[in-house]
Amino acid sequence: MNYKADKVSWRKSSKEIRAIREQVFIYEYQFPLESEFDHHDTHCQHVLVRDEQGVAIATGRLCDDGKISRVAVLMKHRNIKVRRQVIKELLQLAKTKGLKKVYFDSRLDEVDKYKEQGFVPTGTVYMDAGIAKQPLMCALELFKIAPTVLH
Predict the structure, then answer these.
(1) Which CATH architecture has domain 4-142?
(2) What is the pLDDT of residue 144?
(3) Where in the numbering of this chain does the N-acetyltransferase domain appear (predicted)?
């Protein structure tokens, strides 16, 4: 299956972004609604990944300080290819912004996947809404990204 990633704004795409994040974080992971949406959404850059029918299936955001967060993939499409596409597009955005590094908090069971891509643990494991997480960082010069154009 082919996927298409687009850089989007919260203002124009909040309905699609909210739908994905609500399904993944609130209904699946049981995170509280009040913790899922915050003031960062309006000024972060967002990525939406769509399937061949144009349906939004994954999202993630990049804040100005290089923090990647709210990466969510709908269960039906949850595979390494889609998650990597989200991360790749967010890293491309970070490079475009001139950032030298990015960081995010990974679920502990997914840390090894990110280590293979150049991320390194930077802090201690902690619990977030019952899920063990590990802070990770990646120097963008170590992450090889093929040039892409976001629509």
Answers:
(1) 3-Layer(aba) Sandwich (3.40)
(2) 60
(3) 1-147
